[in-house]
Specification:
8 copies of one chain form a homooctamer.
Chain A lengths: L2 H12 L5 H11 L2 E2 L4 E2 L3 H5 L5 E2 L5 H13 L4 E4 L3 H10 L4 E3 L4 E4 L11 E6 L5 H13 L3 E5 L8 H4 L2 H6 E8 L5 H8 L4 E5 L11 H8 L6 E3 L5 H12 L6
Parallel strand pairs in A: 3-4, 7-8, 7-9, 9-10, 10-11
Antiparallel strand pairs in A: 1-2, 4-6, 5-6
Helix pairs in contact in A: 4-5, 6-11
Amino acid sequence: MNRAEIKTLLHEFKRGKVTADNVIDAFSSNIIEPLDFATLDHYRELRQGFPEVIFCEGKSENQVAEIAKRIVDHGSVLMATRATNKHYAAVRKVIKKARYNHVARTIVANEHLVRMRGRGTILVVTAGTSDIPVAEEATETAKLMGNATDRLVDVGVAGIHRIISQSAKLRNASVVIVVAGMEGALPSVVGGLVDVPVIAVPTSVGYGASFNGISALLGMLNSCAAGVTVVNIDNGFGAGFAASLINRKRQEC
Amino acid sequence: MNRAEIKTLLHEFKRGKVTADNVIDAFSSNIIEPLDFATLDHYRELRQGFPEVIFCEGKSENQVAEIAKRIVDHGSVLMATRATNKHYAAVRKVIKKARYNHVARTIVANEHLVRMRGRGTILVVTAGTSDIPVAEEATETAKLMGNATDRLVDVGVAGIHRIISQSAKLRNASVVIVVAGMEGALPSVVGGLVDVPVIAVPTSVGYGASFNGISALLGMLNSCAAGVTVVNIDNGFGAGFAASLINRKRQEC
Amino acid sequence: MNRAEIKTLLHEFKRGKVTADNVIDAFSSNIIEPLDFATLDHYRELRQGFPEVIFCEGKSENQVAEIAKRIVDHGSVLMATRATNKHYAAVRKVIKKARYNHVARTIVANEHLVRMRGRGTILVVTAGTSDIPVAEEATETAKLMGNATDRLVDVGVAGIHRIISQSAKLRNASVVIVVAGMEGALPSVVGGLVDVPVIAVPTSVGYGASFNGISALLGMLNSCAAGVTVVNIDNGFGAGFAASLINRKRQEC
Amino acid sequence: MNRAEIKTLLHEFKRGKVTADNVIDAFSSNIIEPLDFATLDHYRELRQGFPEVIFCEGKSENQVAEIAKRIVDHGSVLMATRATNKHYAAVRKVIKKARYNHVARTIVANEHLVRMRGRGTILVVTAGTSDIPVAEEATETAKLMGNATDRLVDVGVAGIHRIISQSAKLRNASVVIVVAGMEGALPSVVGGLVDVPVIAVPTSVGYGASFNGISALLGMLNSCAAGVTVVNIDNGFGAGFAASLINRKRQEC
Amino acid sequence: MNRAEIKTLLHEFKRGKVTADNVIDAFSSNIIEPLDFATLDHYRELRQGFPEVIFCEGKSENQVAEIAKRIVDHGSVLMATRATNKHYAAVRKVIKKARYNHVARTIVANEHLVRMRGRGTILVVTAGTSDIPVAEEATETAKLMGNATDRLVDVGVAGIHRIISQSAKLRNASVVIVVAGMEGALPSVVGGLVDVPVIAVPTSVGYGASFNGISALLGMLNSCAAGVTVVNIDNGFGAGFAASLINRKRQEC
Amino acid sequence: MNRAEIKTLLHEFKRGKVTADNVIDAFSSNIIEPLDFATLDHYRELRQGFPEVIFCEGKSENQVAEIAKRIVDHGSVLMATRATNKHYAAVRKVIKKARYNHVARTIVANEHLVRMRGRGTILVVTAGTSDIPVAEEATETAKLMGNATDRLVDVGVAGIHRIISQSAKLRNASVVIVVAGMEGALPSVVGGLVDVPVIAVPTSVGYGASFNGISALLGMLNSCAAGVTVVNIDNGFGAGFAASLINRKRQEC
Amino acid sequence: MNRAEIKTLLHEFKRGKVTADNVIDAFSSNIIEPLDFATLDHYRELRQGFPEVIFCEGKSENQVAEIAKRIVDHGSVLMATRATNKHYAAVRKVIKKARYNHVARTIVANEHLVRMRGRGTILVVTAGTSDIPVAEEATETAKLMGNATDRLVDVGVAGIHRIISQSAKLRNASVVIVVAGMEGALPSVVGGLVDVPVIAVPTSVGYGASFNGISALLGMLNSCAAGVTVVNIDNGFGAGFAASLINRKRQEC
Amino acid sequence: MNRAEIKTLLHEFKRGKVTADNVIDAFSSNIIEPLDFATLDHYRELRQGFPEVIFCEGKSENQVAEIAKRIVDHGSVLMATRATNKHYAAVRKVIKKARYNHVARTIVANEHLVRMRGRGTILVVTAGTSDIPVAEEATETAKLMGNATDRLVDVGVAGIHRIISQSAKLRNASVVIVVAGMEGALPSVVGGLVDVPVIAVPTSVGYGASFNGISALLGMLNSCAAGVTVVNIDNGFGAGFAASLINRKRQEC
């Protein structure tokens, strides 16, 4: 579908011959940009409300930089996760204004394009200090997707008063992301205190039998608190993304 | 806190001396009904917006029936999951109008107390026919929590056109629950097609190395589609509960 | 070592030629009663302060009954765990006063021989109703070993106020046993509230990915609360035994 | 079997006293070249239609170089997999024309000996950019075994239109190799679209609970699409080899 | 797409206005028969060359019978796997000529519609007698898909001469399916003896640490013989299906 | 190789034209009795010094009975393991003198053919009473293979004096088989006390996290006592067989 | 709660208006020091009898140093575990007298504040030399918590006389910590010899299938000796902490 | 027991007052040399026929050197396994004649003290070239324990004729050690060809799902060939030790 065809379609839309759904579907399914090592899906932004995000692990610096450039050139917000300093250096060469968050290990650009879309605040809670990098990835994602965020750190269940004394912040959130390693118990406690969705993120923090996050993951999947859903180990990005979809303001409400 | 104390507290609330939050907190933390084998938490309804749900596995028929009676006597909606025919028979003796859904294996009562609270429709999708019991548990939960529901069955990825041809239903949903066994691939496909939250439920359906749902669980946790969160294997109840929290209409929007 | 030899040794002890340790060691290592299918270690009572306990799984009814009879005939307290009704029937034929606890699945006899040996109270806490059988096994063991016991049931972390409101009972205990399935989070919360030893017992209760107690076990091993130690899945007996050793009054204090 | 014996056997074959099968069997079972650290099986080429391939992991540079030299001296095509730069340097010293593919990590030589033997095209598909190295190993193998190859990259299921829009390429293939990490869902989708054999290769790409490819492996083994078979994690070589056997032109058809 | 539309499309095809691919695609994507508990995909036969197969586990007798009837009424070959005697009884009520293979646990009907489509013989080999049921499922599948089959039973590697002495049968096959439990070693030996594709099927046969087929599965995935691909544990159907696709005669060769 | 050919071969052996090895090899590789569901390897007795043993799990009663009859008719000792009462009933119909050991779950016949072949005594030790069935299978195997056996039961490490006090029996053995469940620690202790080979057999006895013998298996594989080798979980037969090969008297010594 | 409020509360306590429990509870729940990356729980010392301990893994040097400084400034004993040399260097800059135990990998300060609180001696036993670092962490913890300690090294079960010959030391202990890798059998032997609590610590020492301590962990969980409880792999700190709680002198005895 | 006491005991032995067993037992249990970090068990040589062997992993260079020196000074053969170059350098400083085998990673000294004790030849077989280091550790151990050894390398099952053509070597062995990675199938084939004990050693060689040797380990434990026993992954030392005990010449035969 070339530029002319898009125009035609849009004119038809204006005259009421096709619906908005028709236009979006057409865009979504037909326009794909083939690189030698990737198939860019620029119109994911139309289908999902957020452009493609680059997962840097297993990609060379050049690959990340080239994909990043295409996304920015296309006029979309850039987000890259699991980025090393080397990835960032390569991206900086082609995108001067790219910013690197070394805690979250994310690269972002075109942030001025972000518009606030959330109904309420996304609260990101961590059980310990060591869980902060994953929480930071979640927060960065939620911000780029247009949400207000807040945070509570180091309020794990071994000192239960720390979380209970923060009930005001908990009540103020419209979605809560809970990041925890070790036994992953915090989401159960939080889930029992609030009446909003809780997304649990296990982290690979802990002694021997934490098995790089498996213990926390299993703890969260088996949470006795209803309303808790789980994402993959250390997957702050996924949690931030899901929380953003939940928090997104829509016309129908 | 006895009845007199509650009244005092409420009068203070009327005169503006305490806030609504104060009242709810007081209720939530102090009133607990101790049985010999359970600690009923009636005011969970105030904290979470839904009364305690009975998980029947590992409980005797008598225990389930007695807890159920207390909940119904307390004027709350009753929901019991993983109930056998024997559990139902015991409950029927003390709650005449209790209803048993033998596919979902749920017992419900006081359904007339349910009021519609959802912003949109919760769509429950299954990959195969064998996934229906878990989907039914999710649907029953969502309905009891005041939501409109819809469903799509047997639209697994091996015949990808089945799900793609249902894009209207997908677009119409405000939350999608995807129930799948075997490789658990359907949530990834659905997650790539919609811009609303997707909750994935792995089921214990499949050949040998499905390992009673572990394969599906891992597939869903590793979904390449952002925005997918996961609940425990065969946990239709958890998915329905989380979807209801997500879909719940709130004042702030 | 025959009866004559034992007398000689004891006379020497009286006259100060050998120490008490010498006598106990001699007894412990040399007197063993060989059956055709078991090697009874009657003097374990001297070494460990409690006679041999019969683990019934994998043993025939006759084997259990014969071993039980020897223990009772020897003048010791009888305890058998994981006993079925059939095991009990066989034991009843040879020990009229044997008692069966069908929740704990234990058989006991010679309870009049128990003498109180504990410094304080052993508190047994369960997260849910389904955890009661394992808690009962722990309680029965602690009682037979001469301890005062107390209990708290169904105070899991999804309703955190239930456990917090019981701080008096928690403060009153000298050892706490916490029995929990699903994510096994309760010991972490309890461990953070008390300054006495906490023994965690995972149970095989829960949805799919609880993996028959592995999730709870891992959760407890990874507890962020220091001072928590763990026994095997569903091993109420082991928890009760360890708690009794901890609680035992000794001369040195 | 020495040179004289081989000649005798071949003369007998000429005069019809022994069959071709007899000759091949004799060669296959009796002629083996013993090195100090390996037992070369030169006549594998006769039995399997491809000479022995060197798996470099766990072998020293010298061992790889020496085995490689024997294979090339024997007049066979050389293929070495999982080769490091150091392995390549050692091989280059003894085989000047050896070529290193640093993406696939393969060393090849004597490529001019390859003759085209395939019935159709082997299509190699990847779910993401990070899966390319494994796909490259598969492609290199298929080429060396005399096949035409084609490829599709980065067409994972989260953007399902990417693969569906390539139905022409899919229809054109006689065997499809699908390389995917994370949840490994792509083979199920492809398997439902084509009527030719699909070989799935899990890769060790992904977040925490991908467990270095186990999730993808399980996803593929549990594929709901019939006709999908699986090879080991990251085993591009095995997939390329199996695809070549499937695609091989034979007299009988 | 109703009957009239199909006619129109076919007329257009006759006049050369649309291609055969267009017609098949249209059929494949648009015609789906919705039942209350299943979405029948009748045109899978056009896409994959074989109609939908019923996997009976987790389906009620009525569900299996109703789906089976639709398939037979549609004029397709019926195959149902993992069928119990009860499933069969229900099917027999609606399809008089249905046949039950109690070893393979398959139900078939409309076998007269099968036409031979294979290039050569599919050989099914078992390591032991206990592997026969899975082998039988593979054989039944291959026959229904139009292939000649042969078999070798109980030729496991502990008596290596048993398989070596059968080299004639091995040489005569165009695809070999190897079914084995325990250590799953037989596919490696067979894979080293033949130059045709080998599909390995692990079975859940063996002592304790066979872990219901995991040992055999891992053994096969790690086969040192190139050209071996693997299907799920006990998945004779999958092996038979994949072997049939490999063996299928096509125009291009 | 028919009867005439065998005769010829034996005559040549008599006249010194072929060696004994030649004769045995010829027998071993060429004479195989094909049944419909099994490939009998009668000459395994020549290669391994013991005839084929029937593993009954997964075989029907008829299959076991038919194979058993062939073995007995062939004049060999019969041994069948993992036999149920039903298997035994079927065998009794065709072999009147067959004997069933219901603890070991073995069927034997033709025991009069056993000749003593051992250098010393094989000692079978169990950690607990529940391990006796597996020990019995090992003992039965060792006896049928011509060995003197002795046993020590219920001497687990929690009462270490029980095993230490039996040093005379330990010193008297030429091979020790140690059967243990739970933590599988006994082989390490025994291995440190003797200077003969120790074969460890894990059993599936124990509480939750024994995981049906995995804990004991891992404990034994990781034994800190050198000289301990391990067989599969509950595999008493394998231990008895290996011990017999070790204990077998040979000409060369 | 500010300084004034604390004073008021304490004056009320003096006049008998509030109890000591009230004061402690108030302190415990309300006074928390928020840093940017941690929530310090200074009054854990009141609740648990020991101040917060810093787990260094996953924390930056700066974070550890800043938390350490706050703890020391607050007048508490400092303990940091899993500390690297870099962590120590950072702490030394702000706390001159901090001491680093490079075997135990602990940082301590304010040791002069430790007061002896134990009833008896805590004995730390290791199976091998390689287990010493974990034992050292346990010992360091026990000492900082005010206990007398003793030790036995390299007394594993393969030379059973080594531990038996040390019965005097074993009898002298009031709690025993047993540290072992490989099969983890030593706690079972020790548990059978003493009548005091035994805490088992698995270590990640051993050959391949020790799986970084899983074998030892499982061995200990499945110990056939009653009275053994377990902490996480390599968790010397947890064992030392639990042993200290057990050994703590209390008024009630 | 001091030197004087030893003399007294030995004189009593000479005069027939105590038996040889008494003397050995006395030595074995009472004489232990305590270092600060190890408890040397010099008399293991009397109990087991071989002195203590140093497992270097997890030990510092100094610790290894000091233990090594004590062993050599005591007049025993020195063997250290899993030694790095650094360990060797430290040992060389105190034991000039120590020899390092860099393939087997062993340090040995006092080899002149070895005396031949074997009945026959121990044959070490490897499936591939990558398995050689483990095989070398086994061979080195067997030699130091006084055995003749032989070897077969790179004879894996994918080229089954390689092992079959070596039947002479196989027949000549009195014990066979089979070292294999990947699927670990070779021991089953060898076990079916010989009538002597086979010890299987899994190695951590292979592609992804070999899981560092677990696949090979499981394959070997599940071997369908009776008479195969297994040691830990990569444990060449254990295999060599067990084979030596099996091969040891004793008086009784």
